[in-house]
Write a structure and sequence with these properties.
With 153 residues, this protein is α+β, with helices and mostly antiparallel strands. It has two helices and ten strands. The radius of gyration is 27 Å and the shape is elongated.
């Protein structure tokens, strides 16, 4: 059995909306709405979800005359440097949860590891925005105390 292409002949002409008597203002509104929906879908499709690979890199912050660097490695660990010297005790494990970096430090306060949450900014930098307390409750850092780390590598 072979399939053959058939030509379909339209017996009636296809009418456009304006040929059906639709007012131009309604057609313009429909066109603008459709274009807006297409644009929103296009932008949504272009946005990317951060991955361990895309976020991994070296981040730097300068504060109070000191330079801190955090190196986020693709394997979910990190290294910390203060003024160019590695601080072994400050390393952390990190992952991405709901588009944010969650890092759990080796440092313990009152027997609980320090856990920080960082926002991934559009320019590739990260900002410390919250901490997780010993009970697992999120505590937001006030805006004036938040530090932004610029991605340098």
């Amino acid at each position: 059995m072979t399939l053959s292409a058939r030509k379909v002949q339209l017996t009636e002409p296809v009418l456009m909306p304006w040929q059906l008597g639709w007012p131009l203002d309604i057609m313009r509104t429909i066109t603008k709405t459709i274009l807006t929906i297409v644009a929103i879908l296009f932008v949504g499709a272009c946005s990317t979800t951060p991955t361990m690979k895309s976020v991994a890199g070296t981040y730097e912050i300068k504060r109070d005359g000191h330079t801190g660097q955090t190196v986020l490695l693709e394997n979910g660990t990190s290294e910390m440097y203060m003024d160019g010297k590695k601080r072994h005790e400050l390393g952390a494990k990190w992952n991405i949860i709901d588009g944010e970096i969650h890092a759990e430090s080796k440092v313990k306060l009152v027997g609980t590891p320090v856990r920080g949450i960082y926002k991934i900014n559009k320019d590739g930098s990260i900002t410390a925005i919250a901490m997780i307390d010993k009970d697992g409750k999120r505590l937001d850092v006030p805006k004036h105390e938040q530090g932004t780390y610029k991605k340098i590598k």
